[in-house]
Amino acid sequence: MANPLNVAASAMNAQMLRLNTVASNMANADTVSGSEEGAYRSRQPVFATVMDQQREVIGVAVTGVVESDAPVAKRYEPGHPQADAEGYIYSSNVNTMEEMANMMSASRAYQNNAEVFSTTKTLMLRALQLGQQ
Amino acid sequence: MSINFDKALGIHEQALQVRHKRNEVLATNIANADTPGYKAQDIDFKAVLSQSAAAGQTSQLAMRTTNSGHISAAQDTRSDALPMDLKYRVPTQPSEDGNTVDTHKEQAEFADNAMRYQATLQFLGSRFSGMKSVLQGGR
Questions:
Q1: Into how many domains does chain A fold?
Q2: Domain limits of chain B?
Q3: pTM of the entire structure?
Q4: Most CB atoms within 10 A, among A38, B13, B29, B97?
């Protein structure tokens, strides 16, 4: 039998990792590179349900972080120190709007799980005090 | 005559166990609100409670085993042996990624369950204080 506190904690952990990828994407939204392969690609975590031997759900985990395959923008800026031989630079494929929405969603989900954690903690403490009044 | 906790506490002991289990199921739903393909689950409180109450009843009427050769007819009624069949929720707004968690519904159910858990604790607490008061002769 899973502990609700562990379940909430695993979800908070996963949401925090999602928030970290958002921060990393936002920070690199304007980085440029001299080659198409070197351009920053937005990173997204992949969530998966964790089950125990009895096929009971015991939490959530991040199984990996994938890079977006959206095309990277190519700009002609011959004066740029990182420009390639033809004068092109390649910027990241981060969509700032998407990342903002992602950030809010992660933050709300984190708050939900924090609430679950604190409510469960209160209930457990109350159960421990049973018959003491 | 002896004090029998099972009789004194009544259904509330089983109710507390089922409430705790439901708390866990709803917590996993909220935890997996963003997991692709996750199907929200819940337990039918009424059905599970009546099942576990029936299981508790049979154990009280179980035959005594006075010899090592006797075979116990009593069923296993420990908390982890509670019959908890989970049911899938019918989604109101199915999403593209196969996830059927409706966060607001889960939040409402979670709050409701927490409140009822506290009510059950309150009932159990008053049973205990009742017993205490009887033992102290009403003083």
A1: 1
A2: 5-136
A3: 0.81
A4: B29
